[in-house]
Design a protein that fits this description.
Elements lengths: L2 H10 L7 E6 L5 H10 L4 E6 L11 H17 L2 E6 L2 H6 L1 H12 L4 E3 L2 H9 L6 E6 L1 H6 L1 H9 L4 E6 L3 H6 L6 H15 L5 E5 L7 H8 L8 H15 L13 E5 L3 H12 L6 E3 L6
Parallel strand pairs: 1-2, 1-3, 2-8, 3-4, 5-6, 5-7, 8-9
């Protein structure tokens, strides 16, 4: 048995969940999703993990993305999470299905992992006015064709235009979100989609929500840009109602815990802008040892 397997086995000797929802992202982007969870589902306990030390995931191979995501999931389950939301489009596209089919059944058969792609796809597919949709995301997300595949399952007639935007995540994580250079690069990525007469734009990366106003301004009033956090929070609320077997319940005094694999000061400084509130309970961890 490998060292990795030994550690997973030792974690599973005490596998009791602790009424916690885990939220994972490669960096800070998932905080834009957690923001809506805390707004609409604030009575639950949450743990957030940002793997800032190893981002961006979007430039890495599918196998590396899977391994990084599996390590993050193992950490969150070992911390007592009943359910994990992979609030990272790249990880959802490249690792979610494999984790659900291969990892969960043997490691944590009574817990669940969800992604962020399906709720957005369903929201778009339900709107009959949308005939053509644009998707912007990291290279890994776009190359996976995850959005295209899921959209075609529900609406085969949809015209789907995709555009990778590899520079946006690093710029946001470096605190350059509102610099003139970032806006110029953003326009360069979005203009090809705008010229293709799309009826809606999917932000296929949770980081992009931090530039929501800028994206809306570039795309114009005619092209709606669904707010991912709102849609995913509504989807989670429905899921929790239907899956009482997970044992997730609201509590009188919920706890919100944050972990990062990189610099605490930078995570707090930028993270509070993403989350829209103060981040108090924050620690640095190394998850690659799990």
């Amino acid at each position: 048995m490998s060292g990795q397997e030994d550690k997973i086995e030792s974690i599973n000797k005490n596998p009791a969940a602790k009424n916690i929802i885990g939220v994972f992202d490669s960096g800070l982007g998932g905080l834009t999703i957690l923001k809506y969870f805390l707004k609409n589902l604030s009575g639950y306990n949450y743990i957030y993990l940002g793997d800032n030390a190893r981002l961006p995931y979007g430039e890495k191979s599918p196998e590396t993305i899977y391994n990084y995501t599996r390590e993050a999931v193992a950490f969150l389950f070992s911390a007592g999470c009943n359910l994990i939301i992979i609030a990272c489009n790249t990880a959802s596209a490249q690792a979610l299905r494999r984790l659900q089919q291969e990892y969960l059944p043997s490691a944590y058969p009574h817990r669940k992992i969800l992604g962020v792609i399906r709720p957005l796809v369903e929201a778009i597919a339900k709107n009959p006015k949308i005939k053509a949709v644009g998707v912007i995301g990291t290279k890994a997300t776009i190359n996976s064709n995850a959005y295209k595949s899921e959209l075609e399952k529900l609406r085969p007639e949809l015209r789907i235009e995709q555009q990778s935007a590899p520079l946006i995540v690093p710029l946001i994580e470096e605190g350059w979100a509102h610099k003139p250079e970032t806006k110029m690069i953003l326009k360069k990525y979005l203009r090809p989609l705008k010229t293709k007469s799309i009826d809606a734009l999917i932000l296929g990366c949770t980081h992009y929500s931090f530039l929501y106003k800028e994206i809306r301004a570039i795309m114009g009033r005619r092209i709606p840009v669904p707010q991912a956090g709102e849609i995913i929070a509504l989807s989670l609320a429905d899921y929790l109602v239907r899956h009482g077997e997970l044992g997730l319940t609201t509590v009188a005094t919920p706890t919100y815990k944050f972990y990062t694999t990189d610099d605490i000061r930078l995570f707090k400084e930028l993270g509070e802008k993403f989350l829209g509130r103060e981040i108090k309970n924050l620690e640095r961890v190394k998850i690659s040892e799990l």
